[in-house]
Amino acid sequence: MGIMTVIDSGVYVDGVRIASGDAPSDAIARARTNGGMAWIGLRRADGDELRVIADLLGLHPLAVQGSLAGHQRAKIEHFGKTVFVVLHPATYIDETERVESSEVDVFVGPDYIVTVQDDDDIDTDAVRQRLEAHPEVLARGPYGVVWALVEEVLSGYRPVADGVENDIDEIEEELFSDHPHVTRRIFDLQREVIDLQHATSALPDVIRRLEETLTAQGKSAGSAALRASSDRAQHVVERIDGFRHTLDAALTVHATLIEQQNNVAMRRMSEQGLAQNDQVKKISAWAAIGFAPTLVGTVYGMNFRYMPELDWVWGYPMALGLMAAVSGALYVLFRRQGWL
């Protein structure tokens, strides 16, 4: 993860900051000496540096290994007195219609809280400032900070959901406008919604288990606050699930519209083919009718000396009658066959 950076460290006693900017070891020692809480924020911490913090606080190796490995789903695990929480804050890039989800690992103990993140996925400075304006929350200890971090993540999901919902509304309008790229847009947005589901689906359970932890510790005020957060998280999950169903329905509708368009095109082609076939039949019929007198005229136009019909008085009327008879017979035949 690169070089460890202490974003900030602070020591709080009864909800009031008594020190800041200390090295992690000094912050931990000061907090324990004064019966307070140390809040340490790490960014891009590599294995050795995170293990130093782990040794100072007695963090469980499995929790440390999970944090270093990354790519974890939202979850909560208990390791003795330490609780390991994974959160996934998200942002939505409207220009590219992409959901960018990151990972924040939180180690919570009786007198400390450690946040580990690659970048400023959660603005811990802003969270600190808001909490310091409400010392009664900080006075609840590390779980007061956990509640604030959870609320920060939940608040971040709102603009993400609004952005996705807006794009879904645009897709619904494009479904009936023959937009050439609507299928690809639906597929791409489906993928982003699935990623968002992965980030949020476990969050209600994580918050409920945090609430149970506080209830077991007899901290009813903190558990009530987390209960409200759990309801908000469930609403987020249901809203995102709704997006998935809407996109699935949009894809089905679009596929149906395309099939209907193809059916209409095929019907038009069939109708055109039938019309052309009728024209060909008519042309062929008239060509055959016109060929009959041509054939008779060609025969008698050869003017051979020993053609008896040339000397007959009725030879010429006979030839004309033969032409008319053959043409008439062909006309009647083609008429009965529906070619004319």
Uncertain stretches of 5 or more adjacent residues: none
State which percent range the strand residues make up. Answer: 15-25%
The share of residues in helices is: 55-70%
Taking strands numbered 1, 2, ... along the chain, how are they ordered across the largest sheet?
2-1-3-9-8-5-4
**What's the total helix number?**
10
> Largest beta sheet, briefly?
7 strands, mixed
Number of strands: 9
State the order of secondary-structure elements, H for helix, E for strand. Answer: EEHEHHEEEEEEHHHHHHH
For the record, the CATH architecture of the largest domain stands as 2-Layer Sandwich
- Radius of gyration using CA atoms only: 42 Å
Counting helices, strands and paired strands, the structural category is alpha+beta
Question: Ends: how far apart?
Answer: 85 Å
- The CATH first-level class of the largest domain comes to Alpha Beta
Main location: membrane
Transmembrane segments: 283-302, 314-334
Subcellular location: Cell membrane
Membrane topology: Multi-pass membrane protein
